[in-house]
Specification:
single chain, mainly alpha, Arc Repressor Mutant, subunit A, Four Helix Bundle (Hemerythrin (Met), subunit A), 11 helices
Length: 246
């Protein structure tokens, strides 16, 4: 059986977090992809044996999955997989597992429907409340997108940096905390929509958002961001042959 202990710089044993997170990732992906839809979830003893880890590692991983809404412990029933409606879809691990399973255009649509409800308002707030440092981060993201068009930066990372900078610039902690969710899901969304268009995201459309924020025009910032995401929704609907309801 593999040990879940590692030595720190002073020679004292500490819990091997890599084993815990490795098991968490394996079990989380298995749950999300439906491995346990028709089979009971294993006991801690069974999991420890199957994955060659200690009971303490297993217990911690199960506890973390429970916190994410994927599992629950019930009296006389043991640990059971929760329905999708109970999963914490704002948890970046859960979102990543969802996006890594068999591709779902419906999930992609739902994510962008969420974006269109959040990012235009974040842009409007940024136009009202952001400081010079925040404006510079937005401009930096835009410049990275321009550089990416010339092969001097990563197109995905540049696009994500721009959108995350706007969430931060909203100066609203609730919007800011969505940055990891946006970063994780955008990576899949951008790949998909760029593949449909055969090109990277429009720098001009992103510039319109930045310019409205710089001009301190919340209505224009909201409209520009909504148009940008609306274009993504239209691409998704076109790929499925359905008219976008926006």
């Amino acid at each position: 059986m593999a040990s879940d202990l590692a030595l720190n710089d002073e020679g004292r044993p500490q819990l091997g977090r890599n084993l815990t997170y490795g098991l968490l990732d394996n079990l989380g992906r298995a749950i999300v992809t439906g491995k346990f839809d028709h089979d009971p979830f294993p006991t801690e003893a069974e999991l420890a044996k199957q994955h060659s880890v200690s009971r303490s590692v297993t217990r911690e991983a199960v506890k973390m999955l429970t916190a994410k809404g994927l599992l629950s412990a019930r009296p006389r029933q043991g640990t059971v997989v929760q329905p999708t409606t109970s999963w914490n879809l704002f948890d970046t691990d859960v979102l990543r597992w969802l996006l890594e399973r068999q591709f779902s255009i419906n999930l992609l649509r739902q994510f962008n429907q969420l974006r269109v409800a959040i990012e235009p308002e974040a842009a409007a707030l940024a136009a009202q409340f952001c400081d010079e440092a925040s404006l510079q981060r937005i401009t930096d993201g835009l410049e990275r997108m321009k550089a990416a068009e010339q092969g001097l930066d990563d197109t995905l990372d540049a696009d994500i940096a721009f959108h995350v900078a706007i969430l931060r610039a909203s100066n609203n902690p609730f919007y800011v905390q969505l940055r990891e969710v946006v970063s994780t899901a955008l990576r899949t969304s951008i790949r998909f929509t760029n593949r449909i268009k055969g090109r990277t995201a429009s720098v001009a459309d992103h510039s319109a958002v930045r310019d409205a924020i710089v001009a301190r025009n919340p209505d224009a910032a909201r409209t520009a961001m909504r148009a940008l995401i609306g274009d993504v929704l239209e691409l998704i609907e076109e790929a499925e042959g359905v008219k976008a309801p926006i």
